Structure formats: C-alpha cells, structure tokens
Amino acid sequence: MATKTAAQRREEAKLEYDAFMAGCPSRQLLDRISDKWVGLVLAAMADRPRRYGELSKEVAGVSPKMLTQTLRSLERDGLVARYVTAEVPVRVDYELTDLGHSLMPLMRAIKSWAEAHMDDVHVARSEYDRTTASA
Amino acid sequence: MATKTAAQRREEAKLEYDAFMAGCPSRQLLDRISDKWVGLVLAAMADRPRRYGELSKEVAGVSPKMLTQTLRSLERDGLVARYVTAEVPVRVDYELTDLGHSLMPLMRAIKSWAEAHMDDVHVARSEYDRTTASA
DNA sequence: CCGTATCCACAATGATACTG
DNA sequence: CAGTATCATTGTGGATACGG
Questions:
Q1: DSSP annotation of A36
Q2: Which of A3, A60, A89, B34 could form a disulfide with B16 if both were Cys (CB 3.0 to 4.6 A apart)?
C-alpha cells in the first residue's frame, strides 16, 4: 500500500468536513440570508406584498437577473409566495409566507448585535490597521 | 439636457442603494459570519485556545491560505486574539476575545432557527421542484 | 409588465511549493 | 511550526437585448 498523497489526504479531510458541516442547517441558513440581495428583498416586502416592478425600484441597483434569481430561491425555500394575476398586462405580486415572517426576529437579532457591537469592531479594525501599518 | 441613459440611471440607483445598505451594520456582520470558514474556525476555538496547526486539522479541508486569511480578518475585527510564543519552533495560539464570545449566542440563535425550520424549507423545496419539474 | 437568455468581468477559493 | 507566494479555476454578479 503506497503512502497517501497530499491530494488523497486532503480529499478525505474534505469528506470529514462535508460530513460535519454540509449537513449543518445553520450553514445553509447563513448562505441564504447572507446573500447580497435577500436582505433587501425581504425588507422590501416585510410589511406588505410587492409587485415585481415595485421591488425592482425599491431594491435600487438590482438587475432583473438578480432580482428574479433572488425571488426564485426565496420562493423555492418557502419564504416568499408568488401570485400571478391574469390581467393585461400581467401582474405578479410577492409576499412573505409565515415561514418568511418567522425569519424576521432573527434578522432583527442580527441587526441588534451589529448595532450593539459594530463600534467595537470598527475600533478593533482601526487599531489593527494602525498597528499593522507597514510603510 | 439629454435624457439619461440606462447606465446613468442605474448608476444613480446604485448610489442610493449603497447609501442605504453599505452603512448598515447588519450587512457587514452577515458578510463576516457567513464566510465559508468563519463558522468552523470560531467553533473550533469556542471552548479553548487553539494553535494554528490544530485549527488546520480540526477545520478539515481548509488550505493554509484560507485559514490564515480567515484568522487575519477575525483578528482585525477583534473577534479573535493571536498570541505568539517565542519558542523554537515558534508557537502561535488563537483564542476568542470577549467580543468573539458575545457573538456565540447569535450563532446559536441561527442554529436554533435552522433546526426548527429547515424541515419546512426542505419540504418547500421538494414541493417547488416537483411542481416545477419540466422534462 | 414580467421576466429570460447571453455574454462578460472579476472576485473568491483552492492546490501547492517554498520561506522565516 | 507557521505561515506566504503564485497560479489555475470556478463561481457570482452585472449589463443588456429580447421574448411571452
């Protein structure tokens, strides 16, 4: 039996990692809510349903591609519901589901921690940058 | 005065977006904690300080480049402290700061929501995929 | 009006060899 | 032991023209 190559060892390690984390629900949740546009989209329809065009304006700077992609993944995860009304032209509304609403306290918790501690973080950064300054 | 081009309008929109979100602390916090390795690294030293080599093994699959990069950003943000002991060979320990520890309840909250609701998410995904199935 | 299709740019991640 | 330097690769997001 030949000695394992670095690549092989790394592959095994990777499997362990996957076994430990890939299945961890917190990882998937973080990946979802930390998406660049998710927070803005959810916030935009927190209080009432919104049409696609409304979201497009309210979430300023988002391209149609990203807006649709964001809405689709939120819909797939059951956080947002999509309603199509067959008018001419067609009308589409999006709104938070109960599951989507249940996520809001968590978002608020994140906001709270950040508001309470981001000053410390910024001070730490300044100190680190000052101390580490090279030239 | 010429009509604004699409690019110009988009640029203005982008600035509005930046003004609204770039300064939002929750955005920065999410970006930090949702990093691929941050969760694992923080978890690895949650109960006691760890040496670089220990982290390298415990956080299986991480390359030295990413481990160092992760540790540096956590150190810069004041979530982790780095201690160098001048032995031969050199010894370096990392541990959570008070600020780092204060983040743990939030991580647990995320984990809790995920554990409580990821089943719903998975059901929603299955339903969505089933309904949307094309070929 | 509500998206989809396409192409492009760039940042993020990874493997790995090498240095203090 | 504890990283750093380099190169290759991939994923992610953006602009925009066009279709239902």
A1: T
A2: A60
B118 touches A: beta carbon within 8 Å: yes
d(CA B89, CA B111): 39
pLDDT for res A41 = 94
Distances (CA, A) of A7 to A10, A75, B40: 5, 39, 21
Contact A25 B78 (CB under 8 A): no
In this structure, which topology does domain A7-133 adopt according to CATH?
Arc Repressor Mutant, subunit A (1.10.10)
Indicate the domain borders of chain B: 7-133
Neighbours of A110 (CB within 10 A): 22
Burial of B38 (0-12, 13-18, 19+ CB in 10 A): buried
Distances in Å between the alpha carbon of B57 and those of A35, A63, B83? 29, 41, 19
Q: Do B118 and A78 make contact, defined as CB atoms within 8 angstroms?
A: no
The pTM (predicted TM-score) of the whole model is 0.88
HSE, side-chain direction, 13 A CA sphere, residue A16:
13
Amino acid at B47: D
* Contact between A118 and B23 (Cβ < 8 Å): no
Count helices and strands in chain A by DSSP H and E runs: 6, 3
